[in-house]
Write a structure and sequence with these properties.
Its EC number is 3.1.3.48. The chain has 333 residues and is of the alpha+beta class. It has two domains: 144 residues, Protein tyrosine phosphatase superfamily (Protein-Tyrosine Phosphatase, Chain A), CATH 3.90.190.10; 149 residues, no CATH class. Strands 1-2-5-3-4 form a five-stranded mixed sheet. Strands 8-13-10-9 form a four-stranded antiparallel sheet, with no helix packed on it. It is elongated and about 80 Å long. The chain starts with a strand and ends with a helix.
Length: 333
């Protein structure tokens, strides 16, 4: 397709396919000064004279990491607009890669939802349809508040970790030790924990509710409330949790699956399988890192963070403000 479609709004942004580059008259009429190419292809540089040109070499496949490029593409688009000119964003057909990139700019500029931005874009170019992988990345970009540095975002880091797990699983291997993300080392505060899980034999705290994997359709709030007053996954035989630092010795051995022992009394408290495992509720969880409900006691979390038994980030000290926040959370249980 050779059409040059203007994105609705008060910004001078256009979207199209690569054949639109031949329409020099349309470019001149639209006062286009910047061209952003979002495709992996050798391009004739003469096509881009006298424009400012940027190329992002990506394929239109669902596992392509386009998210990491959006801070730089957003900056390029904004520079073109600030200069008083127009910006043309294209891929091969003006359908998926370019559409996702324009949507990423709209998310940052207008603080709207990905679907809202896509609906807006389709008013000008109905064929716009980012692939499912790009739409998921747009949702992540929105959740992390469209930062200028996505790589430092915990949301991005966790997404990359899950990609590593999936790649390892596809190869029938465990993730490399340096790729495993231990969530309690990346969480800035544990004050939101509503309950903790302790070894039934020695009472050593093993995890808190904030590290639970919500693996079923029902949320914790929708589940049966037991006598402790805490929501519980009553239909499941296991608690599925994130990798935690006390599991490091076992998880970094490179085994695809194995058992988890309480670090204090060495009782078998769970198991793991990087390729995933099926819960008793029928849900398949990847990766499967589980604590057995028959070996765990669920109790209300203590008011002060150190009592939760999860290692606090270095340098994070108690303060009166922190203690007050903890009490407030406890009262809302």
């Amino acid at each position: 397709m050779s059409s040059l479609d203007r994105v609705p709004g008060d910004h001078n942004i256009y979207i199209g396919g690569m054949f639109s580059l031949r329409r020099k008259d349309a470019f001149q009429k639209a006062n286009i000064t910047h061209v952003l190419s979002v495709l992996r292809m050798g391009l004739d540089r003469e096509l881009f004279d006298p424009f400012h040109h940027m190329q992002i070499e990506v394929d239109d496949v669902e596992d392509e990491n386009l998210l990491v490029h959006w801070p730089s593409t957003n900056k390029f688009i904004q520079e073109g607009l600030d200069g008083g000119g127009g910006v043309f964003v294209h891929c091969a057909m003006g359908k998926s890669r370019s559409a996702a990139t324009v949507i990423a700019f709209l998310l940052q500029k207008h603080r709207i939802m990905p679907q809202e931005a896509l609906d807006l874009l389709r008013q000008a170019r109905p064929i716009c349809e980012p692939n499912e992988g790009f739409m998921h990345q747009l949702q992540l970009f929105h959740e992390m508040n469209t930062p200028d540095d996505v790589e430092s975002s915990p949301v991005y880091q966790r997404w990359m970790y899950m990609r590593e797990v999936e790649m390892s699983r596809a190869c029938g291997q465990a993730p490399d030790a340096d790729k495993i993300r231990f969530e309690d080392e990346h969480t800035q505060s544990i004050d939101k924990a509503r309950f903790e899980m302790k070894c039934r034999k020695c009472r050593r705290p093993l995890a808190t509710s904030q590290f639970l994997e919500q693996h079923s359709k029902s949320t914790l709030e929708d589940k049966k409330i037991e006598k402790t007053g805490n929501p519980s996954l009553a239909d499941c035989a296991h608690y599925f949790v994130d990798p935690l630092s006390w599991m490091r010795h076992e998880l970094e051995q490179g085994k695809v699956e194995g058992r988890l022992e309480c670090p204090k009394c060495r009782t078998n408290v769970g198991k793991y399988a990087w390729q995933g495992m099926q819960c008793s509720c029928g849900t398949w969880v990847v990766p499967g890192i589980s604590l057995s409900r028959s070996r765990i006691d669920e109790v209300k979390a203590r008011a002060t963070a150190p009592g939760l038994g999860i290692r606090r980030p270095p340098g994070l000290q108690d303060s009166q403000t922190e203690r007050n926040a903890t009490i407030a959370v406890k009262l809302n249980l």
